Amino acid sequence: MVSGPMTSRHDTQRLTIGDRTKAMVAGPNIVPAAIAGFLLCMLIGGLILFRSHRMRATPATTEEVEASVTVTPATSTVYANTRRYVGRLEPWAHAMVGPKTLSAYVAAVMVRPGDDVVKGDVLATLDCRNALAASPQHQAPDAALSRAAGDCTFRAPFDGEVATRTADPGTFVAPGQAILTLVDRSTVRLVIDVPEADFNAVKPGTAVTIRSLATGGTVTSRISRRAPAADMNSHAVSVEIDLTDDEQMLPLGTTAEVTSQLGEPAAASEIPATAAKVRGDIATVMVLDGETVSRVRVKLLGERDGKVYVEPSLAAGTQVVVDSNRQLRDGDHVVVRKDEP
Q1: Per residue in 246-300, pLDDT tens?
Q2: DSSP alpha helices (H): ranges in 161-276?
Q3: Quick one: pLDDT band at residue 65, thresholds 50, 70, 90?
Q4: Is the pLDDT of residue 64 over 60?
Q5: Which residues contact 189 (CB under 8 A, 6 or more apart)?
Q6: Whether residue 206 is found in the same domain as residue 234
Q7: Reduced to 3 states, what is the DSSP secondary structure of residue 331?
């Protein structure tokens, strides 16, 4: 009898089932791997085609297209740092004329806005025959005393001009209600509010230039007075400038521009603001050098009214680019546009 391992039919059937199970588990994993491989091949092929296309493309020309520019010369000037403020024109004196203790009808008003008056002139009167005192203690005898003191007749408290008339005859007025207002503008006060950082720049006596926005006129003057403290809310310091206006040319309530110079004027070169790129205290300009341009950096002194002021190391007469049809780089070849006739 031959000895050795013996395999039953049942064992053979069990092995066959196990092999089928392994094949079923391995089968689904093969599909994603095949897809990933296919996509990788497609990607590599696309890259190869892209590189091949770029190699066949026409190479860029080495010659740059000429830029078209407009230039202007820098000019020699002097420059001083300045501060600008906007202020309001107010009268030297202002009075509201009306009753203090009596309520009554207006009997007459003798003046109209724009009229000049002299101190002591009668401006208006009240019909005090049925006047009412402002409080119970101001009855008949006190009312008579008020009338005797002039509370029914109003006179100009100073030489001046009638600014407004707010009541006509027949109007009932009460204490504190104005019949008209009187101003003295032989001297006008220009009041400006200055940032606290400029406190030392607006000392009394500082020279200023003033331009009236209403009339366009320009005058020079000096700061008359400065408040000792800043406003608690706005942190601004009130400054006043007295302006003599005997001819009464400055309209009250209008605004004026005040320019104050800081320091002494210094030599400078002036160029249009469009010719410079400013960053901090450095201005960068493109300068024409023959048929090419070069970038030049120069110290900035200041800017004003569309002009840039730089140190005179940028010499007067230097041609600077103010406009170009494209962005410029150092050494670019340029064509200067001719001025049209």
Answers
A1: 888 889 999 999 999 887 888 999 999 999 999 999 999 999 998 899 999 999 9
A2: none
A3: low
A4: no
A5: 89, 90, 91, 92, 240, 241, 242, 243
A6: yes
A7: coil
| Assigned domain for 11 exists | no
Tokens of 341: 């006739």
Evaluate whether residue 194 is within a structural domain.
Answer: yes
Q: What is the DSSP string of 87-140?
A: EEEEEEEEEEE--SSEEEEEEEE---TT-EE-TT-EEEEEEEEEEEESSTTS-H
Three-state DSSP at 33 gives helix
| Whether pTM exceeds 0.85 | no
Three-state DSSP state, 197: helix
Q: Which two tokens stand for residue 224?
A: 């008359």
What does pLDDT average to over the chain?
Answer: 82
Q: The domain that contains 74 carries what CATH number?
A: 2.40.420.20
Residue ranges of alpha helices (H) inside the chain are: 9-56, 140-148
Closest CA to 158 of 118, 112, 116, 114: 118
Tokens 């406009």, residue? 323
**Containing structural domain, residue 254:** 82-88+186-264
Which CATH number is 244's domain given? 2.40.30.170
